[in-house]
Give the backbone structure.
Amino acid sequence: MDLTTETTGVREELLRRFKESGERERMQDILRNKLHASGWQDRVKDRCQRIINESGESVDKLTVDDIAEEVTPYARSSVPEDIKAEVLEEIRKFIYRSLPESSA
Amino acid sequence: MASPAGRTQTQSPPPPPSSSQPAARGRGGASGRGCPHIASKTKTILERLKVLVPYANVCRHRQALLQGRRGASGGTGNREATPAGGADGDRSRKRLVEEMPPPVCLQCSTAGDRLHACLGCDAFGCWRPRAQRHGQTPHIIQHLTDSGHAFALDFVHQQVFCSACNDYVYDSTVQAWLMGTQIRWHAALCDSAEPEAKRPRIVSTGADLSPAQTKYLREHGSIAACAGVRGLHNLGATCYLSVVLQTLVHNPLVRGWMLSDGHHPSRCRVGRVLEREPPPPPASDDSGEEEVLLSGGRAQPAACMACELETAIQAIFSDTHTPFAPVGLLRTLWTLRSDLAGYGQQDAHECLMAVLDTLHVGFTENATSDSSTRNVQHSHMAPCPCLVHQAFAGVLQSTVTCARCGNATHSHDPILDISLDIPSHTRRTPEDSALSTPYSLGPRNSFAARATDAVLGDWLAARRGTRCSASLTQGVHPVITLQDCLAHYTRVEHLPPGTYACSRCRSDQAATKQLCLKELPPVLTFQLKRFGHAKATQPRSKIDSFVRLPLTIDMTPYTASAMAAHAQAIGGLRASAGAATTSTGSALPGRISNIPVHDVAAGSEDAPVKDTPIPVLDGPGGSTTLGKRRTDATHSNPACCYRLFAVIDHIGHLDTGHYTAYALHRGQWYLFDDAHVSKVSVRDVLAFTEEAKVRAGRPAKGKAYIAFYVKSILDYHDMPGAVSAGAASAAASASPTSANVAANVVATGMGSSNTRISETGEWIEDAGIVRTRINPNGDVKIERRGRKKGSTNARKVKQEPDTSKKPVKKKKNSSEQGFSTPLDTFSSPTFGINPLALNAKQSDSSDSDGEALWTQISKEKAGSDDLVPMTAIQHAVRDDRPLFNATEAVSPADKSGFTPAIALDNDYDDDDEEENSDFGM
């Protein structure tokens, strides 16, 4: 049994099903709500405003891409750990649901 | 710009003039406002947007739309179950919503990562963050450069990107259209979130401004640079009054009402009657008082809080920069509320309640003679049409459930604000924390489970390695949030035996009690109970706990309907003994287990995956999340979304201290500290530093005492709504359909309109150039009134179409100033037609009715001169058609079906533009 191709196949199939079942969108919604409840959104928004304010004279040349670039490391790192864990848990549940029960 | 090119060139719009590119790259300070390229292309872009935006909305709100359909069926487990009373329209809508696939990037076939749609052709491209695209240009930019197309639409955020400017651009026409669409979708989403709900609407001022007046105001009026931001003198420990006044002034509803002539001191019958000079010298009050006493014979002193508030708002919005002394207001407060009189320190919340109370008196005393406000239909528990109750009044529902027989009794109470206890700890129940630990999942006996864990563990470890630390989120100490307070407020309380006697089973055994919000007011006021007993045994003291306020809050989980759905879902879960679907996930429903993943992976194409979709569990947020915090719910009603606009802080102790207020004014936060006003940022308002302290476990002080939230999108009801509402109810007696139609048109109808019922029972609403006729059968007909002189229907329309009634997006600050903005004007006459009005029509009859409406319109268009059917209605029909019957929506007049999946008419009529220019566009 070729384990790598097997794994890749399962992975692709899971990804496909993840999208098609709407699970991806549902997860996005959950994540969005959780992040908002944790105040993450407000903090990132504040950081973006600060970036714009600090750009000063060059504010006209500042693009959304620049702001996104600058804020991404902060935004990424400020996601609370428990939310990461919870979302991971959700994903795990989805995978468990999708995989056959006894394939050992 | 009615060029024929714009009409036929949708397939391949001409590339932007090459000369404009360098100019755009080097756009500098003075001329850099606005994109120079988009102005000539708006027509083409709008045509394209009419296809893309509904598609984007379906993709974005797919879950909500599906949930709504399922919600109508009572949230039962079967996904395929259609509601018993469901119509064909619903089913086809649901099917299309389900089947409309999310787009993917043409180059890398991924669905995420800031997907953009080209506005020149059908291409989609992604825009990865720089770190992930390894120096390559984003795929959408690549596409735009290769094809020479100029614009792209951010598919999620719906912003237009200009490749020449290399940034997102904001063209007023396009933005206005997008906003109009957003408002219509707001209505649709609200309805799908809560199908049978009646959204409460606010009665707006009846400020009658003719279009000419509006135009004059727009051209000649100017907003003083500092208008609205003015300090208030402390008149001797009156900071409690200052903060209350500041929050009232910056309350969009109060301000809008007051600035649009909602209360006339000259006409006021409560306060001074006759000669009242515009700047009110407080000294002259005595004479006025005498006069009232003489003329009206009133026993109580003549003091009107509404007049004083009007004066104060006029003063605050004047050109003057020096601090203002609200002497008259203070005097009135002291006169009317002797308990607050004197130079002692008062509680701001008490003061707020007193001011609202006296304002209510001031408004209602004058309204009694005004017949227009008397007959307006109101929600059952908020019978008062005055501004105070329109803005602040909600309904609290208290449910007591007998623990023995399960009999639930509801009682409803009107509220003006919500007083929240600050829980001493956040509600992290043990099961929550168990769920948050990554590796606590049940027995991992199967190979698949072990493999999954291994892969996920590796992935997690890899992510952890690259993670950089952030001081703000470090620390495990939980922060109490406003949501925690609300959850505490709406928690299930156990009543001890003997306190409640069940009316059904006569038992006085244990019962549970739960509070929730039956009706949400447009302005939500939260008081955090900081002054009280931290514990029952302790003496009265101030509670200093930090409470995090969110900038926006979704109140859906605390509403009565969400509670009911929640209870139902739990009940259903218990009833079906659904242990199989409980949250551990280790025990799987048998029907899922038999999907042969491995077969599919091995390449067999005929695996029946499509026929056995993975069940998405029903109920709000899926039953897997039921045991967890309510923020997990994906179910959200956009009508319950609020945003923060003012906070009152208290600094000091229980008996002595100082109040300051933060308020949002034209997108900028200000700190009002008596006479001092300073610009602040969000992190000051929300006290990020204190929050960081809490997280780190250090002592922190929370200052926020009262928080004011306003609905993100308001539903306005017009003052002449007396007639409209009457018409709606008249129509309701005719048929339920027409009731829906009428109500919806009332909801999003166009401004201060003339509404009447004709002899034949038709409900006719004249708004600007648009005349809406609704006959008793519920057929909606929208006509454009001709401008020919001598025509019987060409009566001059007196009222500005959009001053008040349509839902106003509160983001635009200029629209809050009491006169309408060009944006509003645009979105109203053309797009104020509620899709639901049409959808209701479509959905409960067959599709051919839509065609009938169509041909009717076409016929009329060809037929008469002075009654031209408004072309916008065609767009309204067309725009929403992809939702319901995308494939059939090919019209006879369709000129360019350039999108294979969604055929739309792109007949963007020139007349629309003409009309807009009439309104000063």
About this structure: Chain B has a mean pLDDT of 62. DSSP finds 32 helices and 28 strands in chain B. Chain B touches chain A through 80 residues (CB under 8 Å). The CA atoms of residues 761 and 776 of chain B lie 6 Å apart.
